[in-house]
Specification:
This protein has 102 residues and is α+β, with helices and mostly antiparallel strands. It is 25% helix and 31% strand. It is globular, with a radius of gyration of 14 Å.
């Protein structure tokens, strides 16, 4: 199993949620509010004067537990033009040794 983590600006949270709900391999996902700090802030199209003044950008972290074979399919959809995430998000994939409900 893998965990796909996607970091987006809070302005596109609903758009990502709608997209993920439509994807067959995605059985669920988690959103968490995070603060973005880094050099990319200068080139981020969502950065407002307020964000610049406080020194961080409000972002949402999305964690999605996927089967290994589904990761590339989900990434392909997220990278597509229709997803409109290009240049507005960051992602990474991590190994999940175990996962399930307690």
């Amino acid at each position: 199993m893998k965990v796909l983590t996607v970091i987006i600006h809070t302005n596109i949270q609903q758009q990502l949620s709608d997209l993920l709900h439509k994807l067959q391999p995605v059985s669920g996902f988690t959103f968490a509010q995070v603060e973005g700090h880094g050099l990319e802030v200068e080139t981020d199209p969502f950065v407002s004067a307020h964000d610049d003044a406080v020194g961080y950008v409000p972002r949402v972290r999305t964690d999605i537990l996927l089967k290994d074979e589904d990761v590339e399919d989900v990434l392909t959809i997220l990278r597509s033009k229709e997803a409109e995430l290009k240049g507005k998000s960051f992602y990474w994939v991590s190994r999940a040794d175990q996962g399930g409900q307690l």
